[in-house]
Amino acid sequence: MSFLDENSGRSESVQNGDAPGLNAAFSLSRDVYRQRAVTAFDPGRMEAEQVSTKRRTCGNSDCSGGWAMPWRNRRRPVFEGHWGCSGRCVLAVVRAALRREQGNQKAAPASERHRHRVPLGLVMLAQGWITHPQLQTALAQQRASGTGRIGDWLVSECGLEAEQVTRGLSVQWGCPVLTMEGFSPRDMALVMPGVFVEEFAVLPLRIAGSRLIYLAWEDRVQASVAFAVERMSGLKAESGLLDSAQLKAARTRLLECDAVPTTVETLGDEDSLAARITAVLEQQQPVQSRLVRLHQYCWLRIWMESGTKGKAGDVPTSSEDMRDYIFTIGPGT
What angle do CA 283, 286, 292 make, to 5 degrees? Predict the structure, then answer.
């Protein structure tokens, strides 16, 4: 069983008995209410939105009947900028996205393959931060115990400060040492599902200038995770290291904050996955949604109202009208 399957305390179970008809009716009534409100306060904006909606065509390149359903809401559902004129066309767009993500997944190991890195002990020795006897002592303790990181042994056996080890790791990985300045647990809890924060030991640290998001790691950078956050948030991700004690304390605070409600599901195969994502889009009727693959997980985020997007990329300002779905493919379904 994967970590996500065990994390039922922070995820919601799959709800049975969905009623697409009722959901569609509710979505329609919500749209009518919103249109009336916008018209009352900003007629120009409402007119522009109606023109944009009328011009929207089906995102399925093989569709030939996109105008054959005049009753279909042209504002919803939107998946990665594409609207589908029917459930069949939404399914086609979702399948294309899954094929794209499968290709990204196959390319990921190559992108993760880093050049040979000089061992941390030698890095610190070359920088003059430790002596040769200190390194030999730490290595001997590590061999004797058969476990533990060399940095931890340098701290416990040689009297080094944890900050010195973090500096050495930053030289080893070629990334900066970050600080806690500007960290807001409430805001950063909305960047990604908490299960990913725990699974990949990453901390969304802060957003700078409405275009950069800083990700903090304890002892190594995972490029594929940073890339997934970059694609989902619409912000450029910059990675760095943070002192272990500070990172763990900050991560605990973040996980205590309200996050985007998350549902975790396991499907039997790719066809079932495509069908399930399509069902979610048809039922929830989002104004925006995006799919990103992260190792064995498919992360679907949906924005159910346009007001949920903040000023910084696509990071939401609250958990309201947002939803995260994490899908895996495996046995037992």
Answer: 100
What range does the domain containing 136 cover?
120-173
Do residues 99 and 124 share a domain?
no
Is residue 12 situated within a structural domain? no
**Same-domain check for residues 150 and 209:** no
Structure tokens at 291: 């799919």
Largest CA distance in the chain: 79
Task: Collect all residues with Cβ–Cβ distance below 8 Å to 171 and sequence separation of at least 6.
Answer: 123, 127
Adjacent-strand bridge partners of 207 = 213
Structure tokens belonging to residue 55: 């011009």
Task: Give the span between the Cα atoms of 56 and 46, in whole angstroms.
Answer: 15
Q: Is residue 10 part of a domain?
A: no
113 part of a folded domain: no
Is residue 230 situated within a structural domain? yes
> What's the Cα-to-Cα distance from 13 to each of 33, 196, 265, 296, 300, rounded to whole Å?
31, 17, 8, 19, 16
Measure CA 116 to chain center: 28
Q: Per-residue pLDDT tens for 282-309? A: 999 999 999 999 999 999 999 998 878 7
Q: Which residue has the tokens 């409100």?
A: 37
pTM of the model: 0.75
Give the integer Cα–Cα distance in Å for 235 and 248.
Answer: 24
C-alpha span between 222 and 201 (Å, rounded): 10
